[in-house]
Structure formats: C-alpha cells, structure tokens
Write a structure and sequence with these properties.
The complex is a heterodimer of chains A (about 375) and B (about 270).
Chain A lengths: L7 E10 L2 E11 L4 E6 L5 H9 L6 E6 L2 E2 L10 E4 L11 H11 L5 H11 L15 H13 L5 E5 L7 H18 L2 E6 L2 H7 L2 E6 L2 E6 L1 H6 L4 H6 L4 E11 L2 E6 L2 E6 L7 E8 L5 E4 L9 E12 L3 E8 L4 E7 L12 E6 L5 E4 L23
Parallel strand pairs in A: 3-8, 3-9, 6-7, 7-8
Antiparallel strand pairs in A: 1-2, 1-4, 4-5, 9-10, 11-12, 11-14, 12-13, 14-20, 15-19, 16-17, 16-19, 17-18
Helix pairs in contact in A: 2-3, 2-4, 3-4
Chain B lengths: L1 H34 L18 H4 L7 H32 L5 H13 L2 H14 L6 H25 L3 H9 L4 H30 L2 H6 L6 H9 L6 H30 L1
Helix pairs in contact in B: 1-11, 3-6, 3-8, 3-10, 4-6, 6-8, 7-8
The chains are: A alpha+beta (about 375), B mainly alpha (about 270).
Chain lengths: ~375, ~270
C-alpha cells in the first residue's frame, strides 16, 4: 500500500445480461499489494466482477482502471492481470512445465526454464514438470494453476473460488499457503469466495456483495463486530436480530423498544436512532443463567426456555425460545465453569450492551436469527 | 458339483457369445485375405484352388484395376481435405457462435446422412445435367465432398462440445492472442476429433458406389471397377487391394493406440 500507482479502481461498473443486472453500479478501490476478498452467495455478481477485471466480460457501463491506466476495453491478453480459475482450467494436453511456461512463451520471454523451476519451487512442486494435469491430485492442480498465473508477475492476481474443489483439510492448508505466497510476492490478490471463514482467514480487506452491490467493506474484524446490514450480520457468521423501534438518543445511547422491553445500545454501535431497527447480538456474546439468578450489572437480558442444545466441542450451541416465539442462538464456551443446561430449562440470556449493535430495518420485517447459508457453487456456474 | 458346472457356464457364456459375434464380423475379412492368395481354377470360380503369391506380385495385372484404385485414392484424398476443412470450420461456427440461422443449419447438416443415397445420386445427376456440367472426376469429387461434410461436422462438433470453454479463456488470460489460443489450445484439443473425421471421410469416399455411379460419366473408380468386373468374374487381385486396405487401416488404429498409451505413460 506504499504507492497508489498500481491500485485497482472499479468505477461505477454495471453489467447486465439481458434484463438481469449482475453487477449494479459498483465502485471499489483495491490498494496495490492488498489481499482483497469479494465475499457473497452464488449469483451475487462477484465472479462477474472478477471477469470484468480479467477482461473476459465487458462492462455495460463504467470503468476499470489500474493506477491511471484505463483497461476497461482491453482484451484479456493485453492486461497485466492473471487469473486462477475455478477448477483451474489447466491445459490437459500440456505437461506441468508447459502449463506454467505458457504465459512466458506467449510473451516471448527468455530463460523460461529457470523461471519455471523457481515458480514450481515456490508452490512446492519440484520434480513434477513432466506430469500431465490428469495425473495430479486436486491440491497439486491448484498449485500448478497458481504457479501458471504468478509466473507472469501480474499487477493483480484474480482468484475465482480457488479452493472450492478441495476437501476441508487441504483447504485450510492452502489458505495458509496462499497467504504466505501473497506476502512473499507482494502482488495484489483479489479473491472471490462464498466461504466467509476463508475470506476472514486470508484477506486483509473483505467486501461483502449481495445482488450486484457491495453491502459492506472493511477489515474482517470490523465487519464481524459491527455489521452494516442484516444481510451481512447473518452472512458473515450468525446474529440474533430482534425487530424493534428506535426511540432516539438518551445520553450516549440509542434506546430501542422491542416486545415490551426496553434496551439501550451505545450510539457508536447504531446504524440508526429512529424508526424500525434490528437489535443485534452475536450468539457467542450471549450468556445464559438459570431463571431468577442474578444478571451481571449493566447487562441487558431476555428470558426464555432452552429448546435445543448441540455439543460441538469448543462450545455448546443452545436455542432459547423467547416469550414471543423467536429462537435465539447462544454459543456457550465449554470452558468448564458452567454446568450444561437441560432441555426445557427456564433461563435468562444476557449480554453487555457494548456488544450489541443496531441496524436499519425495513418496516414490517420480523426477527432474523438464522444464518444465510450458501451451498458451494456448482462447477461452471456464474456467480 | 452340478452347482459348480452351472456357475462355470454362467460365468463364461457371455464371453462365448462375444467370441461368436467377433468371428461373425471377422469371417468376411478372413475369406477376402485367403482369396488374395488363391489361384482360381477358372474366371468365375471362388473355390480355394491353389496357394500363390502371384496376385500380390502382379497386382496391376488386370487391365484398368490400378488406374481405378489410383483414381479412388485421389478422389478420396481430395474429398477428405475439402470436407475436413469445410466441415471443421462449420463445426466451430455451430459449436461456438449463436447466429440467426443456426437451428436451420443444424438440420440441413443431417439431411445428406438421412437421405437415401439413391435419391441423392439421382437428384445430383439431374442437377449436373440441368446445369450442363460434364460428368467425370470433378462431379464425383463434388458429390463426395458434399456427403462427407455432414459426417465431419457431426464428429468435430461432438469433440468441441466436450471441450471446456474456460481453457480458451485461460489461454487468453495468459497473453495468447485469439490466433495463438486457437493454435496452442483449441486446435490440439480438437485434433483427435478432426483426425477421426478425416479417416471417416476417406473411407466413405473410397467406398462409395451408388452416388458415384450416377455422377461418374466415363470415369471408373475402384468400387465401380469391381462392380463391372463382377459381370465377367472378379480378378483375384481385387482381394489383394481389399486385404491391403484392411491392413493399412489396422496399422493406423494400432499406431494411434500405441501412441496414446505411450503418451499416457511418459506424461
């Protein structure tokens, strides 16, 4: 982020396919050297955005710039941008060496062999030069795809769900690997994914996309701790969002009334202080005590009944049904300090108001407590 | 014990039937190969009389035989080249581009394959006569190119349909111009389909009798020579040509198999 000469600017870009608007007036600046994640569900426009940067789609309107250079209308082979494709798109008729050397040969670069060797060493695939892609495992193919793109020293490397086809363990390993390589080469990485954990682990900046627009952009912790919209609150992790009405400021707090109870949230954690709002609390920020037991001073609370509990090792995940029927998710750490709660137990869920947040709500919208789940994209699907 | 015998038969009867079918397919070829080494007792006889190599050493003995074979090879070669180039281009257009007339073209491509050869032969003849085109080498070639194109288009299109379009995007992303993308990625991947189409074209052309017969004028191709000779007794050298063609085809198939296997092992 030292200079701005290589920043990637996406300015008011719109892409329509017939009547369907895939990307809707998107404006985004990605600083040089950043590890940037575009996070969203299938069909949110993230892959289309990536393809417009690569030159594989042409924007209906708007501009794509690299530093001061307008690259909107350049053909893919004229851009200093390379892509790691979903399911890799390795050339099946060429061996690993020729796959990796492909870009160098097209640009008539000399000393191909030494560069290919060095790049294969970087992705830990020495000695695989003569293999065909079909003879490699998924993880190895992924590394070849990465080496094939990186060897060209692009100004921007685009990664389209690069880990989607790998199993969980390999994916974790490759996440760390990718991060290491990015730090080593210092190239701007733009990473498209629907996996929120992947985005948070690797990226220093995450943009959450929904319906062709960016819902929120920021560091992973910022977005997680203080989401901007109800979509983000339940796409990045899970939130308990209670429908209420904000009744203005009082001191440094915004007052909210919901289900005949009054709550207060610090004004710095409120996206609105009037009208219909969601009062949000993350499940791990909620704590449970038996009905009638004392709630820590300054905490706010809701009473309910335990309707479900699942033990997942590091924590126990409870569902607590409130008096008005909404089930709140509560994650209690298994630190050994509290006894497990039985199903049907009457409890009080409480939280520190500094951990709550207030979001704007469309009038008439009810409570939202379930996460936005997204199945992995089918291979080849436009997302 | 009975159970064992039953099991033995159950495990093998499919294999037995398979071998019978293979024998049924191979028998005519074996007869042809055998007859190519036969010295017939008289012109109209097909009995196996005496072993000889004369037919092989004196292939061009019967008047006009080698001329006819040469003409068929020429026509086959030219028809293959024209049909493969045109058909491959059409296959690319149909597989890769959406255009106004695409559904119509897809139907028209199938017509020559669906039309009885007899009908096509007579209607082509009518066309040539109406246009007062002199029948001969070139009218045969035009007819052969026409029916070969359909087979080329269908074969190459199938190959292209199975090809991942993202490979071409990846090539372009890696600095390959559209021409380089075609030359380095698309063509090598489509090549097995194109080669198969070319081989198919050659054998269709080499062997065609019905359409050729209507449009040949005085030109004699190999199938027409055999047909003509049949009236007076087929010279045994015809069997030599047949056996040789079969041997060449067999070698080609074996060579591609060996190459593919070695390619898979080395790579």
């Amino acid at each position: 982020m030292e200079s701005t000469a290589g920043d990637l600017h996406i300015a008011n870009v719109t892409k329509r396919f017939g009547i369907f608007t895939a990307v809707d007036d998107l404006t985004l600046t990605i600083p040089q050297g950043a590890f940037f994640a575009l996070l969203g569900a299938s069909g949110c426009g993230k892959t289309t955005t990536l393809r417009m940067v690569a030159g594989l789609e042409e924007p209906t309107a708007g501009q794509v710039r690299l530093g001061d250079r307008d690259i909107t209308r350049l053909r893919p082979y004229q851009r200093p941008v390379n892509t790691v494709f979903q399911s890799y798109a390795l050339f099946p008729h060429l061996d690993v060496f020729e796959n990796v050397a492909f870009g160098l040969r097209r640009r008539k670069v000399r000393q191909v062999a030494s560069q290919v060797e060095r790049m294969l060493a970087l992705v830990q695939l020495e000695g695989f030069t003569k293999r065909r892609p079909a003879e490699l495992s998924g993880g190895q193919q992924q590394r070849v795809a990465l080496a094939r793109a990186l060897i060209n020293h692009p100004q921007v490397l685009l990664l389209d769900e690069p880990l989607g086809a790998l199993d969980l363990k390999l994916r974790r390993q490759m996440q760390i690997e990718l991060k290491r390589i990015q730090t080593e080469v210092g190239i701007t990485f733009v990473h498209v994914t629907h996996d929120q954990e992947e985005a948070m682990t690797m990226a220093d900046t995450v943009a959450v996309m929904n319906a062709g627009r960016i819902e929120q952009l920021g560091r992973p912790a910022e977005i997680y701790e203080y989401p901007a919209t109800a979509f983000v609150a339940n796409f990045l992790g899970q939130s308990n969002l209670l429908a209420g009405e904000a009744a203005g400021l009082s001191g440094g707090d915004v007052l909210v009334s919901a289900y005949e109870q009054r709550f207060a949230v610090p004004a710095v954690r409120a996206r609105a202080d009037q009208g219909p709002v969601f009062l949000g609390v993350r499940p791990e920020k909620l704590a449970l005590v038996a009905d009638g037991a004392a709630v820590p001073a300054g905490h706010q609370s809701v009473a309910g009944v335990v309707t479900d509990s699942s033990y997942v090792g590091v924590s126990t995940q409870y569902l607590v049904r409130t008096g008005w029927g909404t089930e709140l998710a509560v994650f209690a750490p298994n630190s050994g300090t509290a006894a497990p709660l039985a199903l049907g137990a009457r409890v009080t869920a409480h939280w520190d108001p500094r951990h709550a947040f207030i979001l704007r709500r469309e009038p008439g919208e009810g409570d939202r407590t379930t996460p936005v789940l997204d199945e992995p994209d089918a291979v080849g699907a436009v997302s | 014990m009975n159970y064992r015998i039953g099991r033995w038969i159950a495990d093998r009867w499919v294999m037995g039937v398979g071998l019978l079918v293979l024998a049924y397919l191979a028998l005519p070829i074996i007869v042809v190969a055998g007859l190519s080494f036969n010295r017939p007792s008289n012109r109209l006889s097909y009995d196996f009389n005496e072993f000889t190599l004369d037919n092989w050493t004196n292939v061009c003995g019967p008047a006009g035989l080698c001329d006819a074979v040469l003409r068929s090879v020429q026509i086959g070669f030219l028809a293959t080249v024209f049909a493969t180039v045109l058909g491959t281009l059409m296959a690319f257009a149909l597989a890769r581009h959406k255009f106004f007339a695409r559904p119509a073209v897809n139907v028209i491509i199938f017509l020559p394959m669906a039309t009885p050869e007899l009908v096509m032969g007579t209607s082509l003849l009518a066309l040539f006569v109406t246009g007062s085109v002199a029948l001969g080498f070139w009218t045969i070639l035009i007819a052969h190119v026409m029916f070969c194109i359909s087979f080329v288009v269908v074969t190459v299109k199938a190959r292209l349909a199975g090809m991942d379009a993202r490979l071409e995007e990846a090539a372009m992303d890696l600095y390959a111009t559209p021409f380089q993308t075609f030359r380095r990625v698309t063509l090598p991947l489509a090549l097995p389909g194109i080669v198969a189409a070319a081989l198919l074209s050659f054998s269709l052309s080499f062997d065609d009798f019905i359409i050729t017969n209507f449009n040949s004028g005085t030109t004699v191709t190999f199938p027409m020579y055999v047909w003509g000779a049949n009236q007076r007794g087929v010279p045994p050298q015809v069997n030599v040509i047949g056996t040789a063609m079969f041997a060449i085809a067999l070698l080609l198939v074996l060579a591609t198999n060996v190459r593919r296997r070695r390619g898979a092992r080395v790579a």
